[in-house]
Amino acid sequence: MVGQKIDGIEVSNSVKEILKSAVENLKSNGIEPCLATILVGDNPASAVYVRNKHRASDSIGIKTKDHKLPSETTQDEIDDIIDGLNRSDEVHGILVQLPLPNHLDEFATISRISPLKDVDGLTPQNVGLLSIGKSILRPCTPSGIMEMFYYYKINLEGKKVVLINRSNLIGKPLYHLLLQNNATVITCHSKTTNLNELCQNADIIITAVGDRTKFKLTSDMIKQDAIVIDVAIFRHEGKLVGDADYDDIIQKASWATPVPGGVGPMTVAMLLKNTVTAASLQKEIVS
């Protein structure tokens, strides 16, 4: 029996409809939620990502401020911009588009953002709060994945989850969110030696490798009725694909996300949610 698609576009639209009402509520209280973005250099992919975030913000009534900086921007210059945005009462969320040029210190840059305006959930304070289950502003992609589980009423309690990623952006925060929902989580990576066996015994596989030349998830690697969340996006043979062969695994999985149209839209939706939450927190209003 063919499994069911986890539709990230449908879930993200549902989230955005709720957020649209929340934004209207904030505006009726004299607060206009505002997201400030910082893009350093001319990376084409990063420029597209920032443009999409602005477009999504506009669609639900969030104001945006766009800071496009040249590649030669110094650490002091980007620090000064962040300091100004931290002080601004008009700005509620700050997003520094990654990756930064090599001469800039990514950790120092992110750490400079006020934790109350950290809509990517990546400052040391918010990372620490996440690890003890007390976070409010959480990394967007992991939060989006959790939102999809909630939307489709997929119960995580007691489930064996194989998570193929250990990055600060995805794997590590997602590990904590899954644990907080009572899943049993195994984190795998490039040095894991028995990956196929682990996958074959998993109730849920979440994969975010992002390189089809190194890894591909196929139906023989999953058990019957497993759930597959594909976070990766990779251009392969002229088209965008994930880690999983969707047409293959959906014949065996109970649920699976496609690429594109799965996790991607949720990342942007949760950025918007964090921005609305940040605006509410800074004005001591729960929207």
Summarize the structure.
The chain has 287 residues and is of the alpha/beta class.
Fold blueprint:
Blueprint: E1 4-5, H1 8-28, E2 34-40, H2 44-59, E3 63-69, H3 75-87, E4 93-96, H4 106-112, H5 124-131, H6 140-151, E5 160-164, H7 171-180, E6 184-188, H8 195-200, E7 204-207, E8 227-230, E9 234-236, E10 239-241, H9 246-249, E11 255-256, H10 263-282
Parallel strand pairs: 1-11, 2-3, 2-4, 5-6, 5-7, 7-8, 8-11
Antiparallel strand pairs: 9-10
Helix pairs in contact: 1-10, 2-10, 6-7, 6-10
The main sheet comes to:
6 strands, parallel
The helix content is 40-55%
Number of DSSP strands? 11
First-last Cα distance: 42 Å
Shape summary: globular
Enter the CATH topology name of the largest domain. Answer: Rossmann fold
**Overall CATH architecture of the largest domain:** 3-Layer(aba) Sandwich
The value of Rg in angstroms is: 19 Å
The average pLDDT value, as a whole number, equals 96
Order of helices and strands: EHEHEHEHHHEHEHEEEEHEH
- State the strand order across the main sheet: 1-11-8-7-5-6
CATH uppermost class of the largest domain: Alpha Beta
- SS content category: alpha/beta
Low-confidence stretches: none
Strand content: 15-25%
Total domains: 2
Helix run count? 10
Please name the fourth-level CATH homologous superfamily of the largest domain: NAD(P)-binding Rossmann-like Domain
